[in-house]
Design goal:
Strand order of the largest sheet: 3-2-1-9-10
Shape: elongated
Radius of gyration: 31 Å
Strand content: 5-15%
Largest sheet: 5 strands, parallel
Helix content: 40-55%
Number of strands: 13
Number of helices: 23
Distance between the termini: 97 Å
Amino acid sequence: MNSKPSNNAANENQAEHQTQDSQQESIKSMHWTEIVAQKISKEKQPPYVVLAGITPSGPVHPGTLCEFMYAYAVSKKLEKYGKTEFRFVSDDLDDLDSIPEPLKQYEQEITPQMGMALVYAKDPMKCHNSFADHFVAETQKIMKAFGVNVEFLRASDLYKQGKYDQFAKMMCENKDQVKEIVGKSSNRDKMPDEWFPIMPICTKCNNVYRNIVLSYNEGTYKYKCSKCNNESEDKIENHNYKLLFRLDWPTRQKFLNVIVEGGSVDHHSPGGTIATLKKIHSEFYKEEPPYMYKFGLLKYKGKKYSKSKGIGHTINEMLELLPEEIIKYILLKSDVEQDKELVIDVETLMPILDEFRKIGQTDKADELHRADNKKIIAYELCDAKKTWNFDVGDAVLYYSIYKNWDKVAELVEDKQGVENLKQYMQVWIERKLISSKYLFEVKMKKTENAGVIGALQNLQDNMSAEEMQNAVYEYSKANKLEMKDLFKAFYLTLINQESGPKLGKLIHAIGVEKVKKTLL
């Protein structure tokens, strides 16, 4: 006969469940970088090498920004657990496989070089030694703009230094095993007969695309170029080759001692690159793979950001529209696995500015909703310097009236904040990214509208903007006037538009006495 559990056992069981629930709730309130860093610190030993990388195949855009911004944020969180190193690799031995939309004007210069390794293709703008050099320089400049400190590496240098050589030989000499791993992990029923672990770089035309290895023996290989049909012999030690990407990535991680790296949801899909990466580590190199976090897609009006198709803002455009702190905040505030819409237009600009300002002013000592706690961590990771303490709508309203930023600074009582934002506010005004209700010219004229005259006479110079708004509202109510008609008449009389900013704020900003003197 089973006996009932003792009260002590029941209490212990209840306490255990409460502890688990508390831990789960704690995790839900943590920012994703904290979760990743905590998990790694429990499973790995420092130094924590964080890696990221891109292919310098065109102008940097926010999709590229995710690659290094997420990794940099993870590295900052890992620093509390031990020595951390952040490294970034530019895959400049990849082939030039398309003409990015922003470079279509150079199509005539680029087309003959298609298939060449990026480090050997010429810069179409003729300001750098190669196509890769141009966009590596742009990447480094943007990293600096975003305050990202990193050990910057180039694949071409790593190959020239012989970092890959011993592993390339291992893979070539065990081709069948590697081929089987790649085939199974990528969910392919059949691998091409000519498949080989390395891609030779043609010493005659620098083409790397679809070159075929004809034979291999102890580090020496014969190949045929798919572009110029050159047949030649070369050696691994001469470094005129590149491992296939599914093999290059785990190999790079191995000799750089990588602990953690991110990959987009595309790479994490069944049969994707990361499936192969993990199998190469575990089955070929006989080691545990790095921790691979997954990040969602960056989208522009529902479409995936693409530099080749010209979809989405470029980074240079983004930096004209927003301080770098806010761009970082947009990328870091949501869970990393979520797809993110990154569109800066008249509908999205004001809400994100308002959110950023309010989060920056939030007191961490207050009891916070877990979503706000995550936003605060994201804000801290942004290392915000360009801050402000005013409603941007108010600032633009004042500028529409006075056309003077010093006057705006005086009215919002934040000289430094206006200084931080005025170059951006000027762009928002010029590009009409601010709601039209804030963009107007003061064109006051005398009025014979009895409602406007009566409501104005109830306003006093010592009233606040909100008191003026309420006074006009109460006047319309007391005199049985249609409020929308009265407000419309006010706007037409003040700014020659049928609508505008909050009426009380508008009259208060212009000055009650000035309005009365002109209209009455």
